[in-house]
Amino acid sequence: MPEPVSLVDRLLLAGALTVLYAPSGLGKTEVALQLANAVANQTDFYGRTAGKSNVLYVDYEMGEQNFRRYGNRLGLRGMIRAEHDVPLLDLKPLIQAAIADGCQLVILDSYASLSNQTGHENAVNSNGVAELVLKPLADLAHQSGTAIVVLHHTNKGNVQYDGSQRIKALSDMMLKLTLNRRTRMLELNSDKSRYGVEPLSWDASGHPLLHGTQSEDASEHEDQRREWLLEQLRNGPCTVDDLEGEYQKVTGRSRKSLERDLSDTVNDGLVTRARVGRSNQFTLAATSMLA
Predict the structure, then answer these.
(1) DSSP class of 123
(2) Name one Pfam family in it (predicted).
(3) Alpha-carbon torsion, ordered 95, 164, 111, 76, to 10 deg
């Protein structure tokens, strides 16, 4: 078999099934549309060169009118074909027809909408549903040399993708989109890759989730909380329960704030997270211990 071809340099490969996931409202649809625009017009995606191909975007989330308005706002152009609310049984023939017309990038928004069409209770968490939905897409990507990207949500804690372990097993690549509030950057990192993928980040200063949240005073308090957390973890691993009481006394903030601060330190590579029993245990990363 030939080596996979990069559709977007060091990020997106033709012939691979990729799951792109992020918390709701973070902007994964916008990122997916920017990817579509880069491929349709052979322009850069935040400094990464893209190949040129027709694109098929199958939308289950916005509807035709909202999708059109969104596309106009982003300045989409070129050979991007949008389809809406396609029945699951019609999806494979639709993709095959698009591939026959020269499409090398298919984007499906979203996995939850696809899985819920199966009629299974709690479909997102079902291994059988993941097999039913994703296995044909993976086979189609491998056999045709087409990049198929499925958008998905994170779980309630925004730690990893939502649902069944088979989602990760069946995909070739898992890309997680995160917003780094400290650096004001959006970051794409690979949670799983069978091929060479390099992290990518870009300026997110205008992101709606940052509006009104990053004054100099707020940033200073955030840095102080971060230093306090790192100091506690220098004494050994801790859970949220271990830190909560003292954190509230020192900062006056809630458990939710503590969880967000810990997640930010994990995203920045300062702290590692591991599941121990029913709790997440946080440990100072080796690089932080040397600081």
Answers:
(1) G
(2) AAA_25
(3) -90
Helices (H), 87-194: 88-100, 111-116, 127-144, 166-170
- Reference 100, options 140, 150, 51, 136; nearest CA is 140
Element (H or E) spanning 284, and its range?
strand 279-284
CA 169 from centroid of its chain's CA atoms? 16
Which CATH superfamily groups domain 6-208?
Answer: P-loop containing nucleotide triphosphate hydrolases (3.40.50.300)
Residue type, 8: V
CATH number of 215-290: 1.10.10.10
CATH 3.40.50.300 boundaries in the chain: 6-208
Let me know: does 92 contact 129? Beta carbons within 8 Å: no
Residue 77 exposed, middle or buried by CB count within 10 Å (0-12, 13-18, 19+): exposed
Rounded-to-integer distance, Cα 118 and Cα 123, Å: 7
Residue ranges matching CATH 1.10.10.10 in the chain: 215-290
- For the entire predicted model, the pTM comes to 0.74
| Mean pLDDT, range 160-179, rounded to an integer | 93
Residue 96 has pLDDT above 70, yes or no: yes
Of 73-87, 100-114, 177-191, 204-218, the one with minimum mean pLDDT is: 204-218
Report the alpha-carbon distance of residue 51 to residue 14 in Å, rounded.
Answer: 10
Contact 8, 175 (CB under 8 A): no
More confident of the two residues 288 and 259 = 259
Helix axis angle for 255-267 and 240-251, nearest 10°, is 110
* Nearest of 14, 67, 79 to residue 42 by alpha carbon: 79
Q: pLDDT band at 194, cuts 50/70/90?
A: confident
